[in-house]
Design a protein that fits this description.
Length: 167
Amino acid sequence: MKWDALEDEPCSLARTVAVIGDRWSLLILRECFLRIRRFDDFQASLGITRHLLADRLKKLVRFGVLRRVPYQESPTRHEYILTQRGLDLYPIIMSIVHWGNIHMVDSRGRPVLHEHKSCKKMFDPIMVCSECGEPLTAKAVHVHPGPGVRRSSPEHAKAQGRNKTTA
């Protein structure tokens, strides 16, 4: 696989990595979910160079994750707002945060806690089956080729292969 051609791969993970697979894009998304919207605020929060930030924001706009909306004229300045496609990345971001909360915390504990607005309880995100509601683990899932995979592709061979789990 070529890094600059991931978006054309017949693999949903590869296509997603093409959009959010670098550290700056993920950190920009984190800031978006923390309600940061303006270029200078992203730069101040992340310490990223202007050139790199502009590049990553352009990419996220191109893939429809963010939309660029003017908030000032003379000079024109823009905010970057999560689209529905961007909002749909929330479970991914929360899964990464949860992994970090389990495996990367120091003696001070979690840097951020999440409260569910409806029940007012602090929570850990879990992934559940959309059909039965049971929690999902790698060992509890079989993978089958879908209609979007090329029958001669390595992904098809893997899906048909010996280990039918996602791990």
